[in-house]
Amino acid sequence: MPEEQVAPWMENRAVYPGFFDPITNGHVDIIRRGLKIFDKIVVAVLKNPKKNALFSTKERVMMIQEIFADDPRIEVKAFDGLLVDFARRNKANIVMRGLRAVSDFEYEFQMALMNRKLNPEIETLFMMPSVNYSFLSSRLVKEVFVLGGCVKDLVPKIVDRKLREKLKSGKRFFPINA
Ligand code: PNS
User: Fold this and answer.
1) What's the pLDDT tens digit per position in 41-74?
2) How far lies 78's CA from each of 44, 74, 86, 109, 150, in Å?
3) Is the CB of 113 under 6 A from ligand 1?
4) Any idea which residues carry the catalytic annotation?
5) Is the pTM of this model over 0.70?
6) 35 lines ligand 1 (CB under 6 A)
7) Which of 2, 12, 103, 133 allows an S-S link to 26, with CB 3.0 to 4.6 Å?
8) Tens of pLDDT, residues 105-135
9) Ligand 1 centroid vs 47 CA: distance in angstroms?
10) Which residue, judged by its Cα, is nearest atom 1 of ligand 1?
């Protein structure tokens, strides 16, 4: 095979895990940056019944699917259990995570090393978002939104719409812990 051709079985895949309650422009920014490196990114949405989520797993998955509906390089799946097992089942040996500030470092460092201990074949790759989003988190988005602040520039359109629908439906936003 000529050198330039990449065989399909050599597809370069990463997993991008998170709780995504909801996905923000910061997450979208990291995914788009990841697409410069990877052929395929599997967005792994944690199903966590212990976390007090505003959006159900189905809603969190659906919003991300809608945002990337035109891009076949993005696949969105819900998962539970160990992330390294999910990555292996999905034939990815890279876990991609965003790193916003020094404050993220300790938590991310612990997770990356634990994942390496669990499966030394899997590497964690950190990417920095645009400075415009370096202060952004799902938790802050929900807090600002429920207190009447504008989050239009901080989340994809579908998320802004779904936040409004939640508020109208009378869904309790507090406690906000993710
Ligand atoms: O959006 P978050 O809350 O920062 O994402 C955290 C996530 C989903 C990456 C992390 O909780 C996770 O990987 N959970 C799966 C369980 C697991 O594998 N735990 C051991 C590794 S630390």
Assistant:
1) 999 999 976 668 999 999 999 999 999 999 999 9
2) 6, 13, 10, 24, 29
3) no
4) 27, 51, 100, 138
5) yes
6) no
7) 133
8) 999 999 999 999 999 999 999 999 999 999 9
9) 10
10) 18
Distance 82 CA to ligand 1 centre (A): 8
Secondary structure of residue 16 in the 3-state scheme = strand
Using DSSP, state whether 45 is helix, strand or coil. Answer: strand
β-strand partners of 45: 18, 78
Q: Which atom of ligand 1 is nearest to the CA of 110?
A: 22
Q: Is the CB of 111 under 6 A from ligand 1?
A: yes
Answer yes or no: is pLDDT of 177 > 60.
yes
Q: What is the CA radius of gyration of the chain?
A: 17
Q: Which residue has the tokens 């920095």?
A: 128
| Distance linking the first and last C-alpha atoms of the chain | 48
